[in-house]
Amino acid sequence: VQLQASGGGLVQAGGSLTLSCAVSGMSSGFPLLGWYRQAPGKQRELVATISSVGSTNYADSVKGRFTISGDNAWSTVYLQMDSLKPEDTAVYYCKVLWYWGQGTLVTVSS
C-alpha cells in the first residue's frame, strides 16, 4: 500500500488549499482514511477522517473550515482547507490502516 500526499504550500491567512492523498495497492476499499498534522514542536494530531461509506469526522479546531472527501473510486482522498489560520501551519499526513503518506507542508502566513 502506498499513500502519496500532495498539495501543500504557502498561503496567506484566510486563504484556501486542497490537499490530495493518492491511495494505491489496496485490494479493496479502505475502512477509514485520516488526515493528520504535526506542527513544529507539537505532537501529531488527527484532523479529519472519512470512511469508505463516506462518514466523516473532524477535529473541533477545523470544523466548518475543512472538508474531507474522496473520488468515486476512493483512490484519492482530498482535504479542502478554507479560512486558513496561522495555527494551521503544519506538515499534513494521510494514513490508512498502519500506512502513512510522506507528508506535505502547509504554511499559513499572517
Structural class: mainly beta
- From the spread of the alpha carbons, the general shape counts as globular
Order of helices and strands: EEEEEEEEEEE
Count of individual beta strands: 11
Radius of gyration using CA atoms only: 13 Å
How many distinct helices? 0
Spatial gap, N to C terminus: 37 Å
Range of strand content:
over 45%
Largest pleated sheet: 7 strands, mixed
* Low-confidence segments: none
* Percent of residues in helices: under 10%
Average residue pLDDT: 94
Oligomeric state as shown: single chain
Protein model, in words:
By secondary structure, the protein is mostly beta strands. The protein has strands at residues 2-6, 9-12, 17-24, 32-38, 45-51, 56-58, 66-70, 76-81, 90-96, 99-100, 104-109. 29% of the residues are buried. The mean pLDDT is 94.
